[in-house]
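Lab meeting minutes (informal)
Scribe: AK
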Amino acid sequence: MPETPTLEPPAAEEERMQSMSFLEHLEELRTRIFHALVAVAIGMGISWWYHQALFSFIQKPILDVLKPYGIDKLVVLTPTEAFNLYLKVSALGGLFITSPYVLYQVWLFISPGLYRREKKYVTPFLFSTVLLFIAGGYFGYRMVFPAALKWLIGIGGQFTPMITVHEYTDLFLTVILGLGIVFEMPILVFFLALMGVTSAGWMWRNIRYAVLGIFIVAGALAPTPDISSMVIFASPMLVLYILSIGIAWFVHPTQRRAREAKRRKA
């Protein structure tokens, strides 16, 4: 007799993940990257109309430090340097403007690997990712970068500062974007724990190695070699790591199953 097909319960069907081949993953990645790049290009075009105002905002920390020296402008060394600078500034502005859409493309790429009920996290994902990135950039702009510039310029007080826009902008982007990316640690841990790749227990047991890694990253990102600058960079990273342990505990599959079993018993 033919075997009677087993009907899958609705709950199990809801929990079933979408499966994609390797080539389908590559095609999906290509599509999402293309959409994100088009969006950033459009945002860059919009930001170009405000490139001078954007750079005035970017150069404010260094001009505040250079004001006692009687310097109110940075230096360009080649005819194309100002144009290249404004392109970078416009690209940065375009990235910030379109960041919700770009992050939505990231979500569309990773969502096939999640259960259907887990896809409800799209709104919290977009909101928290943008918020953390802006918080990291703001922390660097208001706290880290001015203190680093004051120390760097002050240590060479016997010299006349002549800072080019190229060198300054590269330093600015390294610090601000670096901290913005570092502040995304809870989001990364959220998805790793959600998929069972990591757990709160594993993160806690390896906290000593995490602290070492955090200070290595802080030393690489810090614009000055002194200990205080490294500590300023490392402090929020340590707080974010502790916060990430709590997030990993809450969203890990074992904890979710335990809460689900408790809810059913109730």
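Next up, CB showed the second protein from the same session:
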Amino acid sequence: MRLILSGGGIGEKSYLSYSLFAKLLNGGKVLLVPFANEEKKYDNDLKWFANEVNSFGIKNICMATSPNEITEELLKTVDGIYFEGGNTFLLLYLLKSCGAFSAIKKILNSDKIIMGGSAGALIFGKSIETALKDDLNIIASDENIVGLKDMKGFNVLNNFSLFVHYRVKERQYQVTEEKVQRLVNDGHNLICLPEEDSIIVENNSITLLGNVPAEIVCKNMRRTIINGDTL
């Protein structure tokens, strides 16, 4: 299992992540999963992604336009998958509305290279409740526009959940900290990722990739991690 899960940065902020993704793909074919896009303008998503990764040599890209297309048969034909950001609840809802979630789960222990940004990363944690918009109105939060009840993700992060776009706006530092404490008090163990960072998940190892410190926050523990540190 090899995953690159990004804190939500694009362009220059994701340079290290895209570089690693391209290196691991080694010219292979990538499937773009754009279902977090509320407007469903998937052609625009394909153009955006192709532009993002073109300079890294990632050119062999295909895209699913419906969750029903994501089958075990399709996944056998690609070397990597990229899960785009957007609305986390919409993304997980659509994947679970058909066999897509199960098909993806089955290939997590294969040699496929998976990358996700923001919502596309959150779904691999224990729960996506960390992204739920509330009265604190954190910029890095989503409306549950589909009324999703089952918020369990793929849970490949040793029972941790992700908090992405961490401290993205200085004016929201205080409410961000309050949000983190609420989540921890509700029983969540958090990996708090700034937009410049990703975590690399390989087998049972989780390593930070990025030049901005991230944080691990649990009920009785808080730890800052830097590039190369393992959880």
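CB comment: The chain has one domain: 2-225.
No objections, moving on.
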